[in-house]
């Protein structure tokens, strides 16, 4: 079995790391480059940097930020936010990003996934999906959770995989920031729907939640933000806990 990955996520707004609850009420959590370097030293497997307002404000994630991040890290990182063209991706990969994340632009124009995978390889393309549970069904949301769609989550992740997405980063908006655990039932369904790795996001509050997401949720990686940013859980102690519970992790 492949080692499960622990991935701190840094949501970026106006150059600062922020964190909220259910995608709102954001508070400052520090400098993204400094935090990223700290997590790299602490044993994180990867990092994800998301410019959470880039799409909404019609801006592009700055390649300069990717370059600065790359200069301070020794682990892979994914960057996303406002990516809608091959040129956007080329600039970010040239600046040092290992993978890029697409969300809203891919929903609006699914062929974007195919173009990115065809030009750069599926291994570089992470499909980020934000979804809510409404009347017994999970639906995809766009623009940082601001815009509802009628697209069903499981239909979309399967289509994205067929188009060339190499990884799925699924965030349950209902669980985001509330620290009561991941959405394990739907995560398991996503993992069974696609054959590519699934990163779980939304709901981590204690170490047990990571054990549950790797067992019940069948996720390949566990992503979290505030519990790492505000030093509620250490990455080294989390990995030791998981290893002691029989979950394969890199220590």
Question: Summarize this, please?
Answer:
The chain has 251 residues and is α/β, with parallel strands linked by helices.
How many β-strand runs? 12
**What sequence of helices (H) and strands (E) makes up the elements?**
EEEHEHEHEHHEEEHEHEHEHH
CATH architecture classification name: Alpha-Beta Barrel
CATH class: Alpha Beta
CATH homology superfamily name: Aldolase class I
How far the N terminus sits from the C terminus, by CA atoms, comes to 15 Å
| Poorly predicted ranges | none
Overall mean pLDDT stands at 89
CATH topology tier name: TIM Barrel
Structural class, from secondary structure content?
alpha/beta
**Assembly annotation:** single chain
| Whole-number count of domains | 1
What is the approximate shape? globular
Adjacency order of strands in the biggest sheet: 1-4-5-6-7-10-11-12
How helix-rich are the residues, as a percent range?
Answer: 25-40%
Summed up, the helix count is 10
* Radius of gyration using CA atoms only: 16 Å
Largest sheet: 8 strands, parallel, barrel
What portion of residues belong to β-strands?
25-35%
